[in-house]
Amino acid sequence: MNNEQFDELMSAATFAQAGEHETARNILKGKDRILAAVSDMAFDSSVFSYALNICKRTQCELDILYLTRTEPHMDELHAFMSKAAHEGITSIITKKDGCMKQAILDYTAKKRSVLFVVVGTTPELDIECKAGEKSLSEAWKRMKCPLVVVSRGESPSVA
User: Fold this and answer.
1) Which of 3, 57, 112, 115 lies in disulfide reach of 16, CB 3.0 to 4.6 Å?
2) Within a domain: residue 20?
3) What domain count does the chain have?
4) Cα(27)–Cα(33) distance, rounded to whole angstroms?
5) What confidence tens digit (pLDDT) does each residue in 140-153 have?
6) How far apart are CA 135 and CA 10, in angstroms?
7) Quick count: other Cβ atoms within 10 Å of Cβ 134?
8) Cβ atoms within 10 Å, residue 47
9) The whole model's pTM is what?
10) pLDDT tens digits, residue range 50-95?
11) Is residue 14 part of a domain?
């Protein structure tokens, strides 16, 4: 993401927070999705709260990227999706397994309409990723949208 794109994003966020939703949408120009990336290993519901709040302000749709092998949090995901629908926000879930960084890169490369990605913790990005993957690190630096890490008092441990 270059400086001009970042400035546009920050301007849109400022207008959205000030209640100028139409101006924010005009600035975003076709960027109409927020991606919330979560895993079953470090499941953090604060990611959804943050993503839902931003979706309401910008009138974006919500994509949920769920990195899982066993699907232990499907009830919470469906409850969240119901809450989003109640707020008038369309949401979809895409389940993947493997490296979180690679899953995010693949998703954002395929769906160019993603405004930004929301994740729970920085260690969560390395779930299932092999150390020393240079091509992945280089691709990560060239991601076409910002990454927002939602911080909370105590991060879940990632094994």
Assistant:
1) 57
2) no
3) 1
4) 14
5) 777 888 888 887 64
6) 29
7) 7
8) 24
9) 0.77
10) 999 989 888 899 999 999 988 899 999 999 999 999 999 999 999 9
11) no
Residues 6+ away with beta carbon under 8 Å from 135: none
Q: Tokens representing 65?
A: 């990227």
CATH of the domain at 115: 3.40.50.620
What would the 3-class secondary structure string for 22-90 be?
HHHHHHHCCCCEEEEEEECCCCCCHHHHHHHHHHHHHCCEEEEEEECCCCCCHHHHHHHHHHHHHCCCC
| Interatomic CA distance for residues 98 and 114, integer angstroms | 21
Q: How far apart are CA 93 and CA 24, in angstroms?
A: 26
Q: Which residue has the tokens 């207008």?
A: 15
Q: What phi, psi does 37 have (nearest 5°)?
A: -105, 120
Owning domain of residue 64: 30-149
Any domain includes 59: yes
| CB contact at 8 A, 88 and 64 | no
Q: Is-contact 156 123, C-beta < 8 A?
A: no
Q: What are phi and psi of 123, to 5 degrees?
A: -60, -25
Dist CA 154 CA 159 (whole Å): 15
Residue 1 inside a domain? The answer is no
